[in-house]
């Protein structure tokens, strides 16, 4: 048994109920609720550089993140995750959804995470910095991607600080 993580392009803020409706549509093959985006492929490429999709020849017992093949289109991605790998996979997914402006939905919650949301404790993640530190440990060969994500995190923090200052001023 495992968990699923679904991502699709972010258009407007959405709550858990709205995300659940979109997710159920996607499961039925109805893609009308989401727009196509090249960011789905970019997200998948970065994610699988850390957690590769195994071929029959490359399966390493105990080192698999994916419980089954992905449900995928140019509008969405539904990834069945091995139960014990949910937190490590989410540690990679969260910065990537911000980078590629995607919605992340975990139907088991249900939890919806938008690209502008801060990392939350609901996934066992405390901060962006902890996520990136984790990535450096598990995928040191992805240094360029991690450095870019660190830079984007700092830019995001600065924008958030400016928005807070404007709202208070």
Strand and helix order = EHHEEHEEHH
Strand order of the largest sheet: 2-3-1-4-5
- First CA to last CA: what distance? 50 Å
Number of helical elements: 5
Q: What is the number of independent domains? A: 1
Radius of gyration: 16 Å
- Strand element count: 5
Describe this entry's structure for a reader.
With 169 residues, the chain is α+β, with helices and mostly antiparallel strands. The chain has one domain. It contains five helices and five strands, in the order E-H-H-E-E-H-E-E-H-H. It has a five-stranded antiparallel β-sheet with strand order 2-3-1-4-5, with helices on both faces. Strand 2 and strand 3 form a beta hairpin. Helix 2 runs antiparallel to helix 3. The protein starts with a strand and ends with a helix.
List the helices and strands and how they pair.
Blueprint (H helix, E strand, L loop, with lengths): L1 E8 L6 H12 L11 H12 L20 E2 L4 E6 L3 H15 L1 E5 L4 E3 L14 H11 L4 H26 L1
Antiparallel strand pairs: 1-3, 1-4, 2-3, 4-5
Task: Summarize, please.
The chain has 169 residues and is of the alpha+beta class. The chain contains five helices and five strands, in the order E-H-H-E-E-H-E-E-H-H. Strand 4 (102-106) and strand 5 (111-113) form a beta hairpin.
